Amino acid sequence: MRALIVDRSVPAGLRIGEVPDPDPAPHQAVIRVTATSLNHGEVQYVREDAPQDAVLGWDAAGIVEQAAADGSGPPAGTPVVTLGWSGAWAEFRAVDTDLIGTAPAGAEPAALSTVPVAATTALRALHRLGPLLGRRVLITGATGGTGRYAVQLARLGGAHVVAATGDPAAHGAGLRELGAAEVVTGARDLDAPVHGAIDLVGGSRLVDAYQRLAEGGTVVAVGHSAGADETFPYGAFFGDQGRHDRSVTSFFLLGCRDLGPDLSWLARQVAIGTLRPSIAWQGDWHRVGEAAEALLSRRLHGKAVLEVGRPLV
């Protein structure tokens, strides 16, 4: 089969080449990939550290080519969204069946491919905050793929959503269309505390979000794009300063082994239009270098999607 393989002798660090077909374990299905979306972490860090000729990729949408031998997971011919440590940047991938979500027939593969990391991370992070109805929730890094899903999901849960972005003038209208009630530059601009926060930036943004939590509030540390330390000032965790019982927590998506139902639910919401995938770049997988550069330069506000498997030209 063909795949995008790591090759440091070419400018993009990736090229299309021939690799062996996947050899699935009994609890894995083989998926014919039709679209994959790129994530900043895999393009920036995983690609740099991967061995020569590795096949990377976390997110993929496609069709079940071969059902799992142990009988778990969907049957052959089912449209699916998939998540895994690697293998999405190929014509076929083997995936654990508990990391497969089913999708409605006829759903757009490009839109579905944005679900696995971005939407599922947003959903699981919001679950950490507890009930959202009537609560003020801050989303930092709201213009990225995960941030845009987090804004929409928080609003669906009944939250008063405050979206933080580096350029509210440029992105405020779009974030309000997705469900944000307020758009700010950062937590320091808030005129009132928030009951919870999803931080997708890290560094000082995480510290600021914690400082603006109401009593009993939680900030979920998800992203680290700032590439900076989180340094809390002396006294930040004192319990006698008017607001106490606040917490910082985190989680690792691929450490969650029961993601199939979440993936299926999210895929359906995207397919029926309840959630918007916010695709900022879409093209054939031969253009992976262009897509990766746009993602790493922070020119994209949303997801980059590669269409997989077109014949070589």
From TrEMBL:
SUPFAM superfamilies: GroES-like, NAD(P)-binding Rossmann-fold domains. It comes from the Bacteria. Pfam families: ADH_N, ADH_zinc_N. Residues 9-306 form the Enoyl reductase (ER) domain. This is Zinc-binding dehydrogenase. It comes from Nocardia fusca. The lineage of its organism: Bacteria, Bacillati, Actinomycetota, Actinomycetes, Mycobacteriales.
